[in-house]
Structure to design on (123 residues):
C-alpha cells in the first residue's frame, strides 16, 4: 500500500540528505572529518532535486565555522551531491586571496592537522 512513495521510506528526509552528504565527503581525499562537526541545518525538496544548507564547525576552535549549500539529485532510491557552494564563515575571510568561484577558502574552515585539507566545493 505504501510502496512507491519515497516519503514513507525516508527518501525525502533530512537524514537521507545527511547520508548523501556524508558519503560525498568520505570520497574526498584528505578531509579531516574527525576534526569537525557537520550539521544539516535546512533542506528543501523539489521533486528529484534538493538543496541543503550545511554548517561545518571546528571541534578544536568552535568559533570557526563555514556554511555550505549543497545541490543534490535523486538517483534511484538515494540522493547524490551534484555541487556545493561556500556561503561564508566565521573566523576567516570567506573570500580570501586567491579563492576562485566554487573553492572553499581554507582560512574559514576548521583547523586540520598538517597534510590534511578541509571540505571544499565539489564543482
Amino acid at each position: 500500500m505504501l510502496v512507491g512513495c519515497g516519503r514513507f521510506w525516508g527518501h525525502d528526509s533530512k537524514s537521507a540528505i545527511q547520508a548523501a552528504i556524508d558519503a560525498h565527503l568520505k570520497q574526498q581525499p584528505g578531509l579531516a572529518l574527525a576534526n569537525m562537526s557537520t550539521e544539516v541545518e535546512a533542506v528543501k525538496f523539489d521533486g528529484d532535486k534538493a538543496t541543503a544548507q550545511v554548517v561545518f564547525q571546528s571541534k578544536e576552535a568552535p568559533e570557526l565555522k563555514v556554511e555550505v549549500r549543497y545541490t543534490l539529485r535523486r538517483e534511484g532510491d538515494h540522493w547524490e551531491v551534484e555541487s556545493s557552494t561556500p556561503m561564508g564563515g566565521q573566523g576567516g575571510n570567506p573570500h580570501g586571496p586567491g579563492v576562485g568561484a566554487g573553492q572553499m577558502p581554507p582560512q574559514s574552515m576548521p583547523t586540520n592537522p598538517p597534510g590534511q585539507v578541509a571540505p571544499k566545493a565539489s564543482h
